[in-house]
Design goal:
The complex is a heterodimer of chains A (203) and B (175). By secondary structure, chain A is mainly α. Helix content of chain A is 68%, strand content 2%. A two-stranded antiparallel ribbon of chain A has the order 1-2. In chain A, helix 5 packs antiparallel against helix 6. Helix content of chain B is 46%, strand content 22%. In chain B, a hairpin with a 2-residue loop joins strand 6 and strand 7. The chains are: A mainly alpha (203), B alpha+beta (175).
Chain lengths: 203, 175
């Protein structure tokens, strides 16, 4: 690697020779800097000021595993705090929140003796209902926007991409609600089965 | 020492669309040792018609002893778990059953839209063998809050995107 270092191959740029004579600029540059010329018939090389030292690894690359874990936890905590701040500022429409609340009350009335897991799932479904309704409003607004922007291809494309994202999130939320309700029903069936078996197992 | 209530709680946790040797043992009790087959009525996991079927019993080696197992009607192998899906009661291999993580681990809905958290939540809340403990419920509550916060953040981001698009549209129309 000595040769490569001598001729300064690092951080050089290739330049075309305006005189038409290959290697003229290179010879001139070599004469100024004292470097050796590799081949006169090669594409000319010119020294520039971009010669930089080999980058030193950052300090955190030399951390121990424990220090690195601590750093990652700190970053995660900070980003989590930012996320929490962002979420705290969110407001759903009152009508959607009211519908979610009504659903929560209906779940409680329908299954009064639900266990903790079932109540958690019902809470999730009630919360997701308000979000899904809010998402429907967003989707409706986006569709109306698409009608106005249809004459502008670039804007229509952007609107369509956002609409696709909205539909994807909506599908994920709806599927989550279905799965959660199915799991809550599973828990209810398990509980009924246990009650039915109580006398047989001696409990 | 465990009380009888705890033991009963551990034994009987059936799931819709699944039947295990534990479930059969819980229902039949000691009589199971003398039976050659059991008649099962299993609810379909997909919400279809319940499956009624006679399943043979067999024994498999388990360390120094032998344990009862169910015979899969399709492959005739001894299994501890049979799944009722698509109108058939078969083992997970015959059904080519894959867990949600196996099936969706590269999907956007699983990796970015909360599918992974939801999977963890359902595993915590609907246990198959282990009992529900307070620590598991605390973790489940945390996951529920994370899911709701994540979805709200998604909706808020999309709402901001729509507002930005609306501003661009108005500026172009004005120009």
């Amino acid at each position: 690697m000595k040769g490569a270092a001598d001729v300064g191959l690092r951080a050089r740029i290739y330049a075309t020779d305006g005189t038409g004579e290959p290697g003229a600029t290179l010879r001139l540059a070599a004469a100024e800097t004292g470097n050796k010329v590799i081949d006169e018939h090669e594409t000319t090389l010119v020294e520039n000021d971009l010669e930089t030292p080999v980058p030193v690894p950052p300090d955190d690359a030399l951390l121990t595993h424990q220090e690195r874990d601590g750093l990652e936890a700190s970053i995660a905590h900070q980003s989590g705090a930012r996320a929490v701040d962002a979420v705290a500022n969110l407001t759903l429409a009152p009508v959607n929140l009211q519908r979610g609340h009504e659903l929560r009350v209906a779940f409680e009335q329908a299954d009064e003796d639900a266990d903790v897991g079932g109540r958690l799932l019902q809470e999730l479904v009630a919360g997701e209902t308000a979000i899904a309704l809010e998402l429907q409003d967003v989707e409706a607004g986006l569709v109306s926007l698409l009608g106005k922007a249809i004459a502008d291809p670039a804007l229509a494309l952007a609107v369509t991409k956002t609409l696709r994202e909205v539909v994807g999130v909506g599908n994920a939320i709806r599927r989550r609600m279905e799965n959660s309700l199915g799991a809550a029903e599973n828990l209810k069936a398990q509980r009924r089965f246990m009650y039915a078996q109580r006398g047989r197992t001696g409990a | 020492m465990r009380s009888g209530a705890e033991l009963a709680l551990e034994v009987c946790l059936p799931r819709r669309g699944e039947v295990t040797t534990r479930d059969v043992r819980a229902v039949c009790g000691g009589e199971l040792q003398h039976l050659q087959h059991v008649d099962l009525l299993v609810l379909d996991a997909d919400g279809g018609v319940p499956i009624a079927r006679s399943i043979e019993l067999t024994e498999v080696r388990s360390g120094p002893s032998r344990r009862l197992a169910l015979v899969c009607p399709a492959c005739r192998e001894a299994r501890h778990l049979l799944l009722a899906r698509g109108g058939a009661l078969k083992c997970s291999t015959c059904h080519r059953y894959r867990t949600r993580r196996q099936a969706e681990r590269t999907c956007t809905g699983f990796t970015k839209l909360g599918g992974q958290l939801e999977d963890q939540l359902l595993r915590l809340v609907v246990p198959r063998w282990r009992r529900t403990t307070p620590a598991r419920m605390v973790e489940a509550q945390r996951l529920v809050q994370l899911l709701l916060d994540g979805d709200r953040a998604q909706v808020e981001k999309l709402r901001q995107d729509v507002s930005a698009l609306q501003i661009v549209l108005e500026s172009r129309q004005a120009g």
